[in-house]
Predict the 3D structure of the following.
Amino acid sequence: MTIWHKIRGILALIGILINTFFLCLPLYAFALLRLVLRFEKAQVLLSRILVVIAETWIANNNAIISLTSQIKWKISGMDTPSKDQWYLVSCNHQSWADILVLQRISNRRVPFLKFFLKQELIKVPLLGLAWWALDFPFMKRYSKAELEKDPSLKGKDLETTRKACEKFAYFPTSVMNFFEGTRFDTEKQAKQDSPYRHLLKPKAGGAAFTLNAMSGHLRNLLDVTIIYPPGTPRSLIAFLGGAMNEVEVVVQQRVIPAWASEGNYEDDAEFRARFQQWIGELWAEKDALLESKTPHA
């Protein structure tokens, strides 16, 4: 990565920050209206307005990134998804740029992407309140030690998330979940003894938690595979500054089996094994796709 790539990457970050600041102002204003106008019709209308603002923010970011990175995009599989369906979106995780890639391919093509966030992230300047205004679910997961100390906490995280997800019933929504839970690198891969060549082990429990919390609303899976050029840096600055000359994205739409949202992952061993097998099969297919795109000497 050259110094010019770094300069362009920093300029892109500044542009995104300015875009965020200006669009947060109307976003906060309509969010305040939602606190005042509590009847359902107003809530639905204002939620849609907030999504339009967020989609405009993403469109502006995409324009900024196009100017600084000049990436050649190779996207397949985005011709069939609809804005009238609810989606669970999964993706391999390699870089902070992954979220920007997902927003680039999905904005105004499928319902607005929402993420499950750790409760602490509400404190992030500007974005924390924006995520709250857009009904991103904030999760508080309890450790085994906390549950042993206070058994009444068991199930509280799922109950809280279910309540947050009730607002998703207003209109179609896409819920994003990185099954790996963290970004891929060879050190993590070795530590996990991952059976996959290009992926970490998927955390099936997180996917099961998401589907259960959504109470059957999620019937379609957008299985996204991001393929960055081999040998190029995977940092956010490298992506924004144009050190990657091409990004390929393969999207496969799948039907989520009905049983996947109906079981108890924590307490039902048979359901847990069945769910893990389903996710494992998806991950094996994704790994084979990544292998087929990897040049060999």
